[in-house]
Structure formats: structure tokens, C-alpha cells
Amino acid sequence: MPTYIGLVTTHGANMSKEGLIDIGKSARAWTNNHGGRILSLYWPAEWESEVIITFEGRGNEQAKLCFNDLEKQHGVTITSFRALTQGEKEHEQKGILWTS
Q1: Is the pTM of this model over 0.90?
Q2: What's the rounded mean pLDDT across residues 31-45?
Q3: Among 44, 53, 47, which Cα is nearest to 71's?
Q4: CATH superfamily membership of 3-93
Q5: Which of 18, 30, 22, 12 is nearest to 67 (CA)?
């Protein structure tokens, strides 16, 4: 399954630590209801984003749906992109296409 990274920003809004943790809880709850899975959640000590979400799912549409729902629920912005595993990157370099 393809992996997507979501970089969550609050635009300087004064969100509590609990509010940031709630974003992670909501992401896990979303996958319980809609499929996919959260591989990991990070709260970086030094970074522009307040939360980093790694989502694994059926494809780009499912990842976008998850991140869009989280944006609406928490009033944040999530910049997302597809991330390749080492194996996927090695196959890509050899010209072997992986489909999801």
C-alpha cells in the first residue's frame, strides 16, 4: 500500500498540546472507520509543522479524504505528498513501476 506524509500546520493559532494530540487521535479514529492505517505520528521539536502524520492506504484519493476531513475537524492545514519506501525507490530507479 502506498504511504503518504501529512504535514500539519496551525497557522500560528494557539492550539493546546492536547489539541495537537487530538489530531493524532482523530487520524487513527478516521482509519478505524474508513480504512487505511496510521503508520506513525510525530510532534517535531523543531519544525514548521506541528504534527507529522504517516498514512498508508489504498491510494491518493483515500489519503486526501483523510487529510481533508482532519483539516475540517481541527481547523488546520495539511500539506500531503506520496512517500516511497527504500524498496519502492530502488524499483523506481530500475524502471520497475509499482502500482497501488
Answers
A1: no
A2: 95
A3: 53
A4: ACT domain (3.30.70.260)
A5: 30
